[in-house]
Structures are given as structure tokens and as C-alpha cells.
Fold this protein.
Amino acid sequence: MDLEYMDIWCWLIPLAVGLICGFFGYLIGRGSNPTVDYSSEIKDLKQQYEKAKADLANCEQKLAAGSALNNDAFQAFDAQAAKEALGKAVKFNDLSLIEGIGPKIRSLFHNFEIISWQTLSETSVAKCQEVLDSGGDRYKVHDPASWPMQAKMAAEGKWKDLAKWQHDHKHGKL
């Protein structure tokens, strides 16, 4: 490239055009954007915040009242006691702990939102059979008659009773 053909005007003209366009763009942009008033949006957001705060306080109050009422019935999950009684590691609310429930039947119960020992213990045998029927013909072999009772023992932390029952009644038969 020959530098003798590159004079100062090849650099100054584009620079001047760029500066002029930038200046006019700034003036046009500044004139078309009046000051926006966000006070109404701020007021709405403050009202939503106060409502959410009141809802949270209400929920905390209900939770405190509920835990005070159910304090005697609640028993913490003791994994060590369960392991000692059953001879294997136990996960909290694992439905496959129940004799006769395996991973596939557990997933069927989860589809019906029966995901804890407590909810299974409150489920009728007819509902358990309905859950099994939803899985198809291959689950007709299973008998859910004892499952709510076993789940109740697990939910209440009666690990020795559950272990004895499962030892005496293999395959979940009554």
C-alpha cells in the first residue's frame, strides 16, 4: 500500500462525519425521551410487598399453631434405630421399605401423590389396589392389604414391631 496516496483528509472526513452524527443522535435521543414517572409502579410494588409480608406472617402463625397442636404426635425419624431394628439402612419416607413395595410400585404411588409413610398409612386398601391397577395386569399379583399398617408402623417409628411383622409375614401376606 502506498502511503503517498493516504493524506490527512482520508482520516479527518470520516472522523468528522462520525462526530457530527453522534452529536445529532444524542440530541434527537435526548429530546424524544421525556422523564418517565415510575411512582405508580413503585406504589403497586410496595402494596404487593406488604401483602406478601402479611401472607408470610399468616402462614408462620398457622405453622406455629399447627406444630403446637401436633407436637405430641410428631416423632422425629431415627435412621440409626431403624437400621438396628431392620438390619439395613433406611431412608426417610422410602415406600420400598414396606414389604411388597418395590421401586416400580413406589413410582406408581408417587404418581398418585402418596409419597410418605404417613400418607400411605392413611390410604385405604381399596385406594392402594386402585394404584396397583393403574400399573396394568402385571401388578395384579400383589396384595396391598398390609401396606397401610406397615406404613403406620414406619411413620410412628415402631421399627422393632415392623421388623417382627415383616419377618413373620414374608411377601406381605397377612
The chain has a mean pLDDT of 84. The radius of gyration is 35 Å. Residues 9 and 45 are 56 Å apart (CA to CA).
